[in-house]
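Re: that chain you flagged

S.,

Sorry for the slow reply, it's been a week of failed gels. I finally had a moment to sit down with the sequence you sent. For the record, here it is as I used it:
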Amino acid sequence: MDQLASRFFGNTFVLAAEECDLTQPVCVPEDFTELFVLPNIFGQVNRTILLMFLAALIVVVVLWAALRKPKLVPGKFQAAIEALVGFVRDEIAVGIIGPEGVKYFPYLLSIFMFILVGNLFEVTPAINFPITSRMAIPAFLALCTYFIYLVTGFARHKFTYLKEIVWPSYVPIALRPLVGIIELAQYFVIRPFSLAVRLFANLVAGHTMLSLLLATGIIFIGAAIGGEVSILKGGAGILWFAMGLLIFLFELLVSVLQAYIFTLLSAVYIEDAVHFGH
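Prediction finished late last night. Pasting the structure tokens below so you have them in one place:
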């Protein structure tokens, strides 16, 4: 059964079911971190690194194939990619930041597409591993946004940018020290941290549920067919597997939604730097 599960659902689901105790209601690994640690392939290069480069390559190939020679009457593929690109440009970059958002559009499109592909790896057969469930990747992307909005703020507003954060003129003088500390923490700590953790936590939760439910369903159904457990236990396996399929569909929505939220918040933070104090 492990070979069958690995063939169709990937190694991360099998990790959840190795040495499964069939007396328990759900097959779980001894250490949940096993679900997020992929084996090294070439020395220090593991599957996470390869999937990260694969996600970047997919983004480049998709955009290049759709837009390198755009047709006047686009086909379905070109129309779909143009609609996606137009949405990020018009609704996020320009819609949030304003006309100056065009300058930040390439970055926003890049992170949206990369996160989207990386998230969708979770529901891709034979991969079943969202690269954004490794904290280093959301943290790096959040730091990129952090760097852009800080550089933009200081470049456009010079020392006033920091002064208005630490000593905000829009609040009474008596409250400025307290509000200044809160704003300082928000701009320099909370924003990048929350941006990274929001994406990371959602993908970790989805990957864990998906792995446990589908692996448990496969193992229990196979054990019932082999006579190792009762038919009732096999029926429970069917239930777990059905719930896993529902989670599978839900994670499709989550993958798109989290890519959108990360990109949207990045645009909001950049807009705050561009139009600081307005």
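What I noticed first: The beta strands are 40-42, 45-46.

Talk soon,
D.
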